[in-house]
Amino acid sequence: MDQGRSPLFGSLTVAVAASLFAMLGVLSRTAYGFGLTPFAFVTWRAGIGAVAMALVVVMTVRRGARLVGWRSLDVRARASLGVAALMGATLNMAMFLAFARVPVAIVLLGFYLYPAIVTGVSSLLGWEPMDWRRAIALMVALGGMVAVVVGGPTAGTTEGIDPIGVLLALSAAASQAVFVLVSRRGYRHVPTDQAMGFILAASALIAGILAVLGDGASSLELPFGTPALLSLLLFGGIFAAAVPSTLFLAGIRWIGPVRAGILMLIEPLVGVLLAALFLGEAIGPIQAAGGVAILSAAVLIQRARPAEPAMLPAGEPEPSLEGSDGPVPATMSSSDTPLGDVAPGGLGDAGS
């Protein structure tokens, strides 16, 4: 790590990235208010993000980076990257469909179960041991999710909670967990920006097909006749996808993956605050306690792994990491490391 770089500035960089990703709940809800469907929102946001990442790839290649072709990958790498792209698409669609049905806080807190899911599955597969710290974290996370679901303003009733929306949020967490598990050894020779561009492009393509089939082609044309909506989508694609992804890459190289992963937990906290300010959404005290439990479990899981790269959501790029033992080559991604060295990061493509 470059000792001349300020750890404080690196931490602020990651915090800003997390805060920008946290805007997605409010941005999507605002877009829905213009009549845009969730599938169309994913198509536009992922498409704009993919174009931005393509520009980044062009610049890095011009500066000497290697462009990895699909044919140069072996069968396993192609399959891994393909599954990662599919999980990126399902993550995005589940998140933004959930945003349309349940409060933003429920979606974000449900999504942050993914570190616990990865830990549990990894233990079942024998990839990492289930020690007391991880066991406690799993129980805390599950208990927190129960509190989030049943502890709303109408606790004790089913009013105000859409079970489909909750299931969508949990499916987003499952997609992220599969992404991390598949990426354990997959597509390790694909540079970060190129893998990210492929994943975003796949998300845009899949969502676009579903938008046309489910909502009609006119759903994708709506922004062209609504300048305010088009501006919002451009803002979201750039400042809630490409820019925070780049900031997160820079920040994690400056301060290391462990601190960056913990700082990304700012995302759901800022997301809840923005939802309260701009959407008038509030959560009950039991839900708040459940959210604290989920985030505490994520921190506990991360602290159980002393030298891990951040566990990134499917919608965010996998950074070229610099750990305590020296930098990882820029042509490698965080998926080069064993899953036991993976810790929770943020949503972002989300989501977040």
Low-confidence region ranges: 154-158, 306-348
Q: Tell me, what's the shape?
A: globular
Distance between the termini: 28 Å
**Structural class category:** mainly alpha
Tally the helices: 14
How confident is the prediction overall: mean pLDDT? 77
Lateral arrangement of strands in the main beta sheet? 1-4
Radius of gyration: 19 Å
How many individual β-strands?
A: 4
Give, in order, the helices and strands. HHHHHHHHHHHHHHEEEE
Count up the domains: 1
> Helix content range of the residues, please?
55-70%
Biggest sheet record: 2 strands, parallel
User: What's the assembly state of these chains?
Assistant: single chain
Beta-strand residue percentage:
under 5%
Question: How does this model look, in words?
Answer:
- This protein is an all-alpha fold and 352 residues long.
- The protein has one domain (7-344).
- Helix content is 65%, strand content 2%.
- The protein contains 14 helices and 4 strands.
- The chain has helices at 7-21, 24-33, 38-62, 75-99, 104-111, 114-124, 132-150, 163-182, 192-215, 218-221, 227-255, 257-263, 266-278, 285-303; strands at 310-311, 322-323, 326-327, 343-344.
- It has a two-stranded parallel ribbon. Strands 2-3 form a two-stranded antiparallel sheet.
- The longest helix has 29 residues, at 227-255.
- It starts with 6 loop residues before the first helix and ends in an 8-residue tail after the last strand.
- The relative contact order is 0.22.
- The model is unreliable at 154-158 and 306-348 (pLDDT under 50).
